[in-house]
């Protein structure tokens, strides 16, 4: 059961809007990223709820769950992938052939990407980099950050490293221009999310702001539940500081439903040719809301107001130079050292406050990671392929492990106010 919210209101969407939606017959069954939804029901694009109910879902959402005893081998391999794309056959480093389909400029976003069609007949989206200092460092950062978050127990989008053979590939896959040939790239594959987002307006990418979740925990909860959510949120916030995750626009975070939607709590309607579940006011359609961080490309560097690709993404020198905490504040309050991007906007919690319970919880999770676990994470990220230019920027696995352990020591040595 979700905790009751003091700000509950009736659903406020205009009746003309709802009346325009056609009502299909059945409800979708959400799945897990990287795994298919059940074939007997259509996939819901998102779940539309009223503003107060969304905040209630947000406050009560799962922030942390026990990942179990992940071995170094599991972290190196990544979470099991069974989405019918065929990519799973190449997760051991085998070159993966994929025929060019669409240029990256048609897919949105600025990072280097394109779509291609696999031998299994699936068209997938991949991010890639060339072997140059100006390459796309996201393909290294997203793997390392998503594996670390998985090991810590926080939900993020699983990312899989692949050695991509782009067949019939233009010279510039972003624009689609240039002569065609077979080209090889260091690349990543991110399966589509299959769990529907919980939103209060018709935008599946609404996401959530860090200050919004912070406030929801304070205002909508009380007692032991509030203390637990505060501990987990502060631990997640500190993990973001450790990663230097400053590119935190709302769409980079996701509020979604991990379990089956309750059929009698609303109805499916068509919106822009997509099935959307509209929750009935006062009902609870999702028994298991969860928050996740779904884009960790600008991490393991030095976060800044512009999130520069060369410094904010997988740059060892910049990352190692950033302290975890600001200097002590009066009363022993701890604030993480984090500059957020200008694009993130208000509510992105620069230099966030960290409570002692959250610090201790994250520290316990970090201490469970042995050198073998950390080596597996940075091996999976292929940091040995990072561009070298004479400094420590592209140093190998051992240097990244040492820098990580130095940051953990900073967390160990600090005591924070409650």
Task: Describe the protein in words.
- The chain has a domain at about 80-145 and about 155-190.
- The protein has a 5-stranded mixed β-barrel with strand order 2-3-4-6-5.
- The model is unreliable at about 5-40 (pLDDT under 50).
- By secondary structure, the protein is of the alpha+beta class.
- Helix 6 packs across helix 8 and helix 9 (about 370-380) packs across helix 10 (about 395-410).
- It is globular, with a radius of gyration of 22 Å.
- The protein is built from 10 helices and 13 strands.
Q: Spans of 5+ residues with little confidence (pLDDT < 50)?
A: 3-40
Question: Which class do the helix and strand fractions yield?
Answer: alpha+beta
Task: Going across the biggest sheet, name each strand in turn.
Answer: 2-3-4-6-5
Q: Specify Rg, calculated over alpha carbons.
A: 22 Å
Number of helices: 10
**Count of distinct strands:** 13
Q: How helix-rich are the residues, as a percent range?
A: 25-40%
SSE series = HEHHEEEHEEEHHEEEEHEEHHH
The percentage of residues in β strands lies in: 15-25%
Overall body shape: globular
Largest beta-sheet characterization: 5 strands, mixed, barrel
What is the first-to-last residue Cα distance? 28 Å
Task: Please state the average pLDDT score.
Answer: 88
Features:
418 residues; alpha+beta; five-stranded mixed beta barrel; four-stranded mixed beta sheet; 10 helices; 27% helix
